Amino acid sequence: MPTPGSIDVPYARYASVAELPEADQALVKAAHEAALRAYAPYSKFYVGAALRTTDGRMVTGNNQENASFPAGTCAERTALHAVMAQDPATVVETMAVIVPQVTGDRPVSPCGICRQALLEQELRQGRKPLRLLMAVHNGPVYELRTASLLLPLYFDASFLNG
Fold first, then answer.
1. Does some domain include residue 120?
2. Of 16, 45, 90, 110, whose CA is between 20 and 30 Å from 100?
3. Residues 6+ away with beta carbon under 8 Å from 37
4. Which of 61, 129, 123 is nearest to 96 (CA)?
5. pLDDT (tens digit, 9 = 90+) per residue, 72-93?
């Protein structure tokens, strides 16, 4: 007989970007601007990400599609890889993600591959939390205090050492 269980994901919901602290508002705005520069001629699904490091730098990314679909990359990984390529010791404090054309009450969350990449970043930076803001243009913002909440039953290097 199985033992029942549950996995809860705590988050904070802000009614709009205007409720965020000023630095987070700027991050969401930068993610929105990055989304408008995305290369998404096939899906027309423009995603922007902006991250802030503990030393105050802001780095943006957007999705980059390719006619050979698996060759494209998501906004979150574009931003993460850009900052890590420049300074592998960087600690990412917060990332904002937005898809401008999505409306309603539910922001788009990172895909499975990006969830794994965000988790790996947290592990890479000594388990220092990578806070995540997922925004709807002219709508709510969901905040997760740590990206690992996106992937509660995560895969990490400990499974490779078995």
1. yes
2. 90
3. 48, 62
4. 61
5. 999 999 999 999 999 999 999 9
Query: What is the pLDDT, as a whole number, of residue 46?
Result: 98
Q: Please list the residues that pair with 53 across neighbouring strands.
A: 92
For 8-21, the pLDDT digits (tens) are 999 999 999 999 99
- Domain-embedded: residue 6: no
65 is catalytic: no
5 lies in some domain = no
Out of 19, 22, 33, 76, pick the active-site residue.
76
Q: How many structural domains is the chain composed of?
A: 1
Give per-residue pLDDT as tens, 48-75: 999 999 999 999 999 999 999 889 999 9
Token pair, residue 57, equals 């730098």
Torsion-angle region of 11 (φ positive above 0: left; ψ -120 to 50: alpha; else: beta): beta
Query: Token pair for residue 85?
Result: 């390529």
Tokens of 107: 């922001």
CATH code of the domain covering residue 115: 3.40.140.10
Closest to 20 in 3D by CA, of 124, 133, 102? 133
